[in-house]
Amino acid sequence: MRPARAQDIWILGGRGDGSARRRYKVGGRFEENISAEVKGVYRALYRSFRPARFADVVGQELAVRVLRNAVRRGRIAHAYLLAGPRGTGKTSLAKIMARAVNCETPTDGEPCGSCSVCTGAGTHTVEIDAASNRGIDEIRDLRERARYAPPEGQFRVYIVDEVHMLTAEAFNALLKLLEEPPPQLLFLLATTEPQKLPATVLSRCQRLNLHPHRAEEVREQVVRVAQQAEIEIDDAAARLIARKADGSMRDALGLLELCAGHADGPVREETVLAATGALGEAEIRELLAKRAAGDVAGALSWVSAQEARGADLRLLVTDAMDIVRRDMIESYARAAASEADAACRTLAALANLDGEMRRGMDARLGIELWIAQPSDEQVAADPPVPRTEPRPAEAPQKAPPAARPLEPSAPPRGAQPAPRSPAGLKPADKELQASFVAHVRDVRARAALEHAELFDAGDAWELRFRTPPLLAIAQFEETAQQIREALWRVGGKRPVRFGLWE
Questions:
Q1: How far apart (Å, rounded) are the C-alpha atoms in residues 365 and 344?
Q2: What is the full per-residue pLDDT of the chain (502 aa) written as tens digits?
Q3: Nearest residue to 350 via CA among 322, 381, 384, 392
Q4: What are the strands of the beta sheet with 496-500, ordered from one edge?
Q5: Cross-strand pairs, 207
Q6: Which residues pair with 461 in a beta bridge?
Q7: Reading across the β-sheet that carries 79-83, which strands appear in turn?
Q8: Which of 96, 292, 393, 447 has a CA between 20 and 30 Å from the CA of residue 494?
Q9: Is 471 helix (H, G, I), strand (E, B) or coil?
């Protein structure tokens, strides 16, 4: 049975081991839903191994110490704000705190785990999802119910998850309750984006910042959970899961569960790579080496092969950033300034590419354009262009020249002069070229054709590109075939040749 209305909120409790009794309000009465050890029902690992005591929480020492000392000393604030990224334990800490403040026999600030409050049969805690109950009507209903004392225990506890999703009107309605709360009321607010909360709300809460978990903490917890869940996993796989989780314990346990379902036997590093679509460090270094050596065609073929085998190209960029970042730190530690500078420039280019992909750029197109750009090693190897004109301070002082007719202005410095048409070739009609480019489906091919010119050689079509990297992209097998088909559809079927401007 589900809640009949939005304001009929779940009443939560339990030890987090699947043996809790839950009650919820329906139509003005309370119904019990006994969820104790239902046979055949599987619980996800992150739910089955949710911490039930402050001592079970991994990391977050500051937040745990503050909350536990508040319960131990009886100095409990009326509102706590738990802020931090996903999977850092905000909701888990709120639920532990809700049990601890109302526990019948607390021990050193910890809930006992055996009384009616700790086993989940109490009606003292209300959990609200602010993402779906974000309007002013829900907060007004909360204010009406908050005036009454809890049916049992000392506090009526409200856990408001994702509180930043409340509307401005709902925040205004909540503000008065936070400013002058009843003595029996305790608010536990959780959010991933505290900057979206009004300053008036922030100033009335005791804020606890939860940081992402360290990789070693996540690895140890993954190994511990795998042992209790009877999942065999080796240390390399656990370390890789910890890196992929990016500080989120929930993501790490979800990934462990995914890999356990993917593997026929023990979970190994290869299992994690296959389950996530990631690539090994040796394979990613192969791509970085090809780009550094200027092997554009080889690097493009490598990307195509990895995508064909199901690799996640967005994850490839993230992993490459991690590898180059480690190389940069090691280079600075060895005082290898040139290597560190090259790694820093590569990391900046990858970070820019990652940002473009987050804004919607096609992953393969972005990687190919990054490959086609000259690498930092090639730029460093190119000799600097000598400066021929004198500097302004070195220019000889001369008398002002006599007035003369105006001449056409020279192109600005750094601008590339327009290339001349190759001998014996006639430029194709501009409308024909525009129509042909519009028929190309692949965005990678269209991006390369923006810097190309189409010529009519009589018995063939010729496409001339301005730079070798763009020519390499166009000559890639899949891209070249799409260009030919689009050109044949618009201008007739002839051989298509690719080349550079002379």
A1: 23
A2: 333 333 333 333 333 344 333 433 333 333 333 344 445 577 889 888 899 899 999 989 999 999 999 999 989 999 999 999 999 999 999 999 998 998 888 888 888 888 877 876 456 788 888 888 788 888 888 888 877 777 777 888 999 999 999 988 888 888 888 888 888 889 999 999 999 999 999 999 999 999 999 999 999 999 999 999 889 999 999 999 998 888 899 999 999 999 998 888 889 998 999 888 888 889 999 999 999 888 889 999 999 999 888 888 989 999 999 999 999 999 988 888 888 888 898 898 898 898 888 888 888 888 998 988 765 555 444 444 444 444 444 445 555 555 444 444 444 444 444 444 555 577 877 777 787 887 777 776 777 787 788 888 778 888 888 777 777 777 777 778 888 888 888 888 888 888 886 6
A3: 322
A4: 426-427, 452-456, 461-465, 496-500
A5: 81
A6: 456, 496
A7: 29-34, 21-26, 10-11, 125-129, 156-161, 185-191, 79-83, 206-209
A8: 447
A9: helix
238 in Cβ contact with 93 (< 8 Å): no
Q: Quickly tell me which residue has 């020279």 as its tokens.
A: 410
Helix (H, G, I), strand (E, B) or coil at 188: strand
Structure tokens at 352: 């820019």
Residues shown for the chain:
502
Euclidean distance between CA atoms 303 and 444, whole angstroms: 13
